[in-house]
């Protein structure tokens, strides 16, 4: 019975840690804080031709479709890779 109390306390600690981690992640990795960094990195890394080409790709329906589907592709790829390596 004593072990259960320790486990419950450990779970509570882990839950609190997770909640704090998520809160910090959301506040520090929001678009408002990342946008100036991304603009600077893109500006000094990509040529105007690169940026124009990216804009031309992402603006039409195929580009918007790509952006909306990439999180699913990434998630499925991660699952497949985990099965292969796990």
Series of H and E elements:
HHHH
Number of strands: 0
Which structural category do the helix and sheet elements fall into?
A: mainly alpha
Query: What Rg, in angstroms, do the CA atoms define?
Result: 21 Å
Taking the sheet with the most strands, its summary is: none
Give a quick set of tags describing it.
single chain, 86 residues, mainly alpha, 4 helices, elongated
TL;DR of this structure?
This protein is an all-alpha fold and 86 residues long.
Structure write-up:
The chain has 86 residues and is mostly helical. Helices cover 91% and strands 0% of the residues. It contains 4 helices and no strands. It has helices spanning 2-28, 31-45, 48-58, 61-85. The longest helix is centred in the first third of the chain and has 27 residues, at 2-28. The chain is elongated, with a radius of gyration of 21 Å.
Question: Layout of SSEs?
Answer:
Layout: H1 2-28, H2 31-45, H3 48-58, H4 61-85
């Amino acid at each position: 019975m004593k072990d259960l109390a320790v486990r419950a306390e450990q779970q509570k600690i882990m839950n609190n840690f997770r909640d704090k981690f998520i809160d910090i992640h959301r506040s520090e990795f929001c678009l408002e804080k990342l946008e100036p960094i991304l603009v600077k990195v893109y500006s000094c890394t990509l040529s105007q031709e690169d940026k124009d080409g990216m804009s031309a790709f992402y603006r039409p329906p195929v580009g918007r479709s790509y952006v909306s589907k990439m999180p699913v592709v990434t998630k499925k790829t991660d699952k497949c890779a985990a099965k292969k390596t796990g």
